[in-house]
Amino acid sequence: MKTLFASTSRGLEELLKKELEELGSVDCKIGQGGVFFDADEKTLYQSLLWSRLASRILLPIAEFDIYSDLDLYSCVFNIKWPDIFAVDNSFVINFVGVNDFIRNSQYGALKIKDAIVDHFSRHTSERPNVAKQDPDVRIHAYLNKNRVTLSLDLSGNSLHQRGYRQQTGQAPLKENLAAAIIMRSGWQMDTPLIDPMCGSGTLLIEAAMIAAKIPPGLLRKHWGFFAWKGFNPILWNELLFAAKHNISKPNIPFIGYDNNTVVLERAKQNAIQAGVGDLITFALQDVTQLTNPLPDVTGTIISNPPYGERLESEPALVALHTALGRQIKQYFGGWRLSLFSGAPQLLDCLQMRAERQFKAKNGPLDCVQKNYTIAQRSTEQVSTPILPAADFANRLRKNKQKLEKWAAQEQLECYRLYDADLPEYNVAIDRYKDKVVVQEYAAPKNIDPQKTRQRLFDIINATMSVLELTADQLVLKTREKQKGKQQYQKLSQKQDYFLVHEYAINKRKTQFWVNVTDYLDTGLFLDHRLARKMIGEMSAGKDFLNLFAYTGSATVYAGLGGAKSTTTVDMSRTYLQWADRNLKQNGLTGRQHRLIQADCLLYLEQSDDQFDLIFIDPPTFSNSKRMSDTFDVQRDHLKIMANLKRLLKPNGIIVFSNNKRGFKMDNAGMQSLGLTYQDITNKTLSLDFKRNKQIHCCFIVQHQK
Q: Looking at 442-507, which runs of residues are DSSP E strands?
C-alpha cells in the first residue's frame, strides 16, 4: 500500500475524492489542490488509467526540513536515486515554493538537480541528462516554509492530455474539467446529450467516453512511471487489456452544433481519434436556430458558451445567451440544461432559475456551472419575455414611442433615446440610423464591479428587446473623463463610416459621415443640432470661423447656409480629415473653405483674421501636451472672449457653447470687455435633450452697442 497525491483544478477536490474511492483507493483526504489517498499496486495503476479528474498523480519519495540551501542539497543527495530511476533516463525538476534562503524556484530546482546528478556520479560514475522537453522522469519538489516534499510524478504529462485532441478552438476546456462538468450536469448516461455550441467537441467526447467505458488514459503513449524502478509492466498490460475488452459502445444520441465549419471539422477529428466518432453527430447550426431534433424523448443540453472579456463583444454575448434561453424554453420542455460560464451575469439572460450551481476554476478564471430543469409548455402558449430591468425597459419603451414619432416629423436619423432617466441605469442611448450606441457612464470605484456588470447586461438585454435590435446593431461604449489625447484615441479599427442626414438648409439636407465603433465620440454631437441649424440660418454672405471644430458639422451648416467663407480650426489631424470629408460630401469645396490644424487657443492669440460669425465649443477642461498650458472653460472664458472680440467684426456674432455643468458667464468681466451676451440654451435644446437641461449651455455674444 502506497500513499499518493492526486492534484486537480481548484473546486474539483471533492469530486476527485469520490472518484478515487470508486476506483478502490482508501483513506482519501482532501488537501491543498488535490487529494491524498492510499492504494495498492493495482489501484495505483487503475487511478492513473481511469481518473478523469486528476491532473497528476504523485508518489512521495522523501520529506525533510531544511535550514539552508546546503541542507536542501545534502538531503536530496542522500536519497538512493539509482533505486528510483536509471542513470540513462533523462529527468527534470519542478520546484514550487520559496523561503528566506530559497528565494526563487529556479534556484531550488538547480540545487536539487545538482544533488541528483552528483549522487549518480558518486555511485555509478555516470551522469543522467536533464531534459526540459519530454523527460523520462519528473521530480516534483514542494517547499512550505522549511519543509520540503519530494515526489515522483507517475503521470508524465498532465493527465488532462488524453491524446485525442489534435486541434482546438480559441479557448478550449481542459479534458478533466470537461469531465467534471459532465459529472455535475445531472446527465443520465442512457439519455441523449446535446451541445448547441460544441466548439472542438470536448464536452461531448468526454461524455461519450464515459458512456462507452473508455479509459481516459487509453491513448497515452508515455507515462511517468515507465522509467520508475518500481514499475510492474505485466500488471499494467493486464489492466490495459481488460480495459480495452470492457469497452461497450452505447446506443445513445450525442449531438453537437456549431456555426463554424472549421471548428466542427476539428471536433469530428478529435472524436474519431478518441474512438467515439461513430457515437457523435456534428452539424452546422447557429444557436439562434436551435430546435429539438429528438422531440419524443428527454435528455440533457450541456454547453460552455463563449464569455468574452472585450467590451465590444458584450452585446453579441447578451444576444447569444438571450437567444439560447428563448430556443431552449420553446423547444426543450422537460429536458435538463447545464451551462458552464466564466460570466455568471450572462446566464441571467436565459431568464431561468437554476436548481443547483457549482464553482470551479478554468485556468485563472472563476467560473460557475448552473443546472436547470426546463419547464414543459403547451404549443399554444405564447411566451412574452420578462426583462430583468423592467423599469428601465418601460422607460425606454415610452421614450421610443414619443421620440420616434417626433424624429420622423423632423426627418432626423440621429437622436437620443435615453439619458440616465433612471439613476440606477446610468447610460445614454443614441440612435444613428439603424445603429444604436449605448454609452455607459463609468461607475464610482466604490460600486461592486459585479453589480455594475450585471446591470449593464440587463440594460443591453432590455435595449435589444425593446428596440428590436440584432447584436451587430448595438454598440457599447464606456464614457469617463478624458485626459489629453484620450478623446482622439481609437477604440477599434473597423473603419465603419456611414452617412446620416440632419436638417435641410436652403432646401439641401445636411449630410455627415459618422463612425459609431472606432472612437469614443461618433463624429456628430447630437445635442448641438439646433445650434448648428441656427448657424446655418445666420451665415448667408458672412465670413465664418469654427473653433474646436471637431468634424466640422457646424461648418457644413454655415457653408450650405451661404457663408462667403469658412475657416475650420482643430488640433486633431484625424478630425480635420473627417471635417474635410464632410465638407466635400456636401459639395463645399474650394479655397474659400479653409481647414487649419492648430491649437485653437494659440490661433486665437495669433490670428489677425476678421469674421462676421464665430462658433466656438471648447472643452470643459484640457491638459493636452500639445497645448501650452491647462485650460478650464470656467476659469479661462474671459481670456477667450477677449481674443474672440479682436477677431469679431463690428456687427459680428459669436455663438459660444460648452458642456460644463453649472457654467456661469462672468457678467462684470464681459461688460469690462465691451461685450454683451444672451443665454439661448433653452432654444438649442431639442425634444430628445429637454430632460437634461445641463447637457450644454449656449450664448449669443456681440459687441456692446
A: 474-479, 497-505
